Amino acid sequence: MGLFFSPTKLVITSVLVFQFSAFHVAAKQVAQSAVAMPDSYSADTAKNILELGGNAVDAAIAAQFVLAVTLPEAGNIGGGGFMLIQKDGKSDFIDYRETAPSDAHRDMYLDEQGNVIPNRSIYGIHASGVPGSVAGMWLAHKKHGTVEWKKLVQPAVTLAEQGFIVPPKLAQGVSNYISYLNEQQIDVNFEKYFAGLKANEKFAQPELAKTLKRIRDDGQAGFYEGETANIIEKFMRKHGGIITKADLKNYTAKSRTPLKASWNGYEVLTSPPPSSGGIAILQWLKMYELQKLNNEVAHNSSSYVHLLSEIGKRVFADRAEYLGDPDFFDVPVNALINELYLKKRMADISLTAISTTEKIKPGLKESEQTTHFSIVDKMGNAVANTTTINLGFGSGVVVEGAGFILNDEMDDFSAKPGVMNAFGALGGKANEIQPHKRMLSSMTPTILLKDNTVKMVTGSPGGTTIISSVYQSILNAIEFNMSAEQVVNVPRFHHQLWPKNVIRVHEGLNDAVKVELQKMGYTIDERHFGDMHVIINRDGKLDAASENSGRGKSIVF
Asked: Could you give the domains of the chain?
């Protein structure tokens, strides 16, 4: 078995940026700034940039590069994501999702019999799409940045070159991952680079530092051209990979128009395709609102969990059929969030019985390790950024000579219609592999506005569970008036059509509720998901929180 041939599962996240829409009303300033970040290094860096006079986008760019050093399980320069921006009363969405290499093709993960080769899209040199993170940050800076580029990248350079003190949680994650790779006999080079990482000790990454210096000095070209591009292509050729210098040079981050819809007195700004999350969020919120007109249900009661699970069945059936890269597939966005359609979609939902999973079809007629952060500056600008290399530690492959981990985002394509990916999500023709195409994502950075003022910034990692985390965070904050601390830590749940009648729940969901759900016919899978970082604006006073289960840090200042 060659060096980069083995499979097994792991997940990571992506970064979002919003494109300017038609909002021209000036945003209200707030007296405070706030950051809610996945670790202390990114939190302190973002705070420093804001205190130096930078805006929310500047802080987000600096934090993104720091996370590539200090959060290797999900932070990255070898992955991609989405950044949602509300700035100066206008919105923007920057899509820096990875793309399939030019030599990729529909059947690249199938054997001679047409069956999916287990884990080939998850581990090793063939699992990676063309990275988009550096291009995404460069585009965000060109459009919205105010602080010199070099100053935004330098904190990451320093941490990579001089080292950072390793949190015990990261050390344990690396140790567990190495053990798993060895147990499964997955032949990648991750251990060579990270075996020396020890809790509460400094960990330096000299190769990564050199790559970051080239990005610092030469911007986007410091990654996609020149020495770094040469290193990547040489590494690919050596191990049979297919990403070329031409793939790198031709990669383009895109500014797209964010989805926006009215809900419960708020304007919801969220992620457009190739994210599936934005449409799913709006479907979930609107169907819940329609059902609520007839039936009040208590928070996290069995009726509440069941109702939202039933909605989830229908949301994920639509996701599998209609969602993909809008540059390759005509996604019926307006039809999927139309209120008349959603009324029909939920007409057969019963509050006392489970729908037959096999009968839930797409309604129109003819993708856990991730990281997210939220930032609000004193001018009232906001960034919701979700970034990923897909599964934890991506493909397990580190580019030799460049020091960064490659993503395993190719698993977010549909390798074969009707076959689940690592997150249990089904896909079809809309999300089939094509050269230069962006794979479907569940990343869902989201911002709530009222009178064009930012009222909430939210997002989460977690593969397909991202969608559940985000819509529940909105309901918790708005419908149930919870504080940011309560929003991120109250038990959440997730259901996505398949596996059949399985509800994944956080520890802490009431035992009596779980028993009632089991009596209805559900299987309860008690496993944590997500790592939420939320900022809420209540009458000009910011409230920020990072989920207790992670190693995040939130600051209001």
From this structure: 34-255+372-431 (no CATH), 256-368+445-556 (3.60.20.40)
